[in-house]
Amino acid sequence: MTETPIKNNNDTIFGFPKYPNFRLNEPRFPQDTFLGRYLHYLDVIDPRTLFVSDKRLKECVKLLNDYRKGEVSATNVELWHAQKIKQAILHPDTGEKVLPPFRMSGFVPFGWITVTGMLLPNPSWPTLLFWQWMNQSHNACVNYCNRNASKDQDVSVYVKAYGAAVTAAITTSASLTYLIKRAQHLPSTTRLIIQRFVPLPATSLASTLNVLFMRSAEMRTGIVVYDESEKVVGISKVAAKKAVYETAATRAFLPVPLLLIPPCIMPLLERTAFVQRSPIHHLLVNAAVCTISFAFSLPIALALFPQNSSIATSRLESEIQERTTDKFLFFNRGL
């Protein structure tokens, strides 16, 4: 198919064309560099796609289908926008709509509440456990809805994984908090400061385990690998492990800037007259700092690895190697 020419658009972002010649089912920016992946994921998490109507979604899907058949002439801007909307809302494997709270574009708008709750200063035991449960429940739903779904899995597998993930989060957070509260030799101010950072190791570990638990079935059964023409070559457990481990690494990193920035900034803001005026002001400022930190952290974590990842054929199972002469095959890592 002839590429759609660029029409009156010479804008660039960090040296990349803002709207290059359109490529169906491919990212708008190069995925072989961190910066290109970062720009790609800014599209993926764009919260404006949460407000796209069903009518607009159907128009975008139709435009892309017509383009595939060579039956439409549209600008690169129109085509890239249509693909952005489709990929933000529909699962790449199932083609089904992902509920807004569990889309990557909804991760920050719906997740900031639990993040703010986890970072409340000097929480009680019920508060601590409640927000850890809420956070890992949201994470589990996001991991499930953005998994590689090229092979069906029994729902009971995910129910057991959810229980394990929540148990890990609550156990880790409660254990660290208990140890700090028992550290009577530390000044109370020091203990309070340290406790602000408790959510970091607890959430990082729990988020990693959440991915491993929720997507463990993929590693047991394998996922689809395909060649450059998107022709399915086989089912690989090796590729599945790579997909899950890479996703787990992004979740391990995600809480680092997210949970380090607020504890460093809030003590400074808490000295201002506005924050000291009332508990409501304190809560609002804390929520704003957490939300900004979340929005800053998410695309960086996602950009650590490309979503459509590659793997050397020589690393895959022997039966897959026998079916192709390609040196590399590809798979959907999930998000």
TrEMBL record:
GO terms for molecular function: monoatomic ion transmembrane transporter activity. Keywords: Amino-acid transport, Membrane, Mitochondrion, Transmembrane, Transmembrane helix, Transport. It is a multi-pass membrane protein. InterPro entries: Mtc. One of its GO terms (cellular component) is mitochondrial inner membrane. Coiled coil: none annotated. GO terms for biological process: amino acid transport; mitochondrial transmembrane transport. Its main location: mitochondrion. Signal peptide: none annotated. The chain crosses the membrane at residues 283-305. It is found in: Mitochondrion membrane. Belongs to the sideroflexin family. This is Sidoreflexin. It comes from Steinernema glaseri. The lineage of its organism: Eukaryota, Metazoa, Ecdysozoa, Nematoda, Chromadorea.
